[in-house]
Amino acid sequence: MLLLAVAAREIIFPPVTGFNPYQSTLRNSLHNVDIVTNSQFSGLTTFAHLPYANCFVEDKLDQKYDIAFLGAPFDTGVTARPGSRYGPGGIRQGSRRMSAQAGWSVYTGENSFEDWATIIDCGDPPLTFLDNTIALLQLEKAHKAIANRAAKTISKSSIPRIITLGGDHTTTLAALRSTYARWGEVSVIHFDSHIDTWDPKVIGGGLSHYAGVNHGTFLHLAHEEGLIRNTSIHAGIRAPLLRPKGDVRNDLRCGFEMIKARDIDRIGVQGIIEKLKARVGDTKVYVSVDIDVLDPAFAPGMSENFFLSSLA
Fold first, then answer.
1. CB distance 77 to 213 below 8 Å
2. HEC letters along 183-200
3. pTM exceeds 0.70
């Protein structure tokens, strides 16, 4: 029988205080520690780590831009679940893995952050949550402050573009008012499960004029104010209507055609794209996307949940 001598493993416990005398030597030798790697998870959180600029001050900005991200922390125009005032912060948090350094598309081979446009994040304007009228005026003023500056790449456009991070859909009314001041009437491509052209008398207006301005009426109001063209279109509509015929008649009066969610089964993605392009033609276009155009399986925290989406 062969006997093998096995030495017991030596176990060394650290000092009770947790202090190792070697640490002092280690500290002195690591004066060049790395604070760049993974720094995308710390510091000021902008969308995709874009440069931040306070675009709301009247002083001239040193930095010119072509596209600006703008947060709209507003959710007191909803008829169901509030909470989207935290949307701009949530979107920025979710974009932390995006950056110009890692922005090359595997599909196109292009990097939108490194293309012709200089892109910045203007942060959020201070919107009151106690008065919707004042809040929408504050947001409109913020839009105009951004759009009224000269763009950097004049060969493309003298007017900067704005990407708004909501916020409930009522905020689009302020955006369209600002857009009209710089671009005139625009066609709207509206991705949503609801039409949002309801007459204020149907949603809210029966209570007061103030209540008639909400996330279900803003496109009706935009039409009445002459902000949008009669070449607009919805995509993804699936939510029920409040009136059997009156809502659709009013929607047509407001200048909209409708692509329903299930149309994608009939004509496919390319068919949807062609219908959108044919509708707006060569007009100036404002694109608005409501998160509830997705199925609740993909966005369960939305204000209005309706199943049977284009992605169900």
1. yes
2. HCCEEEEEECCCCCCCCC
3. yes
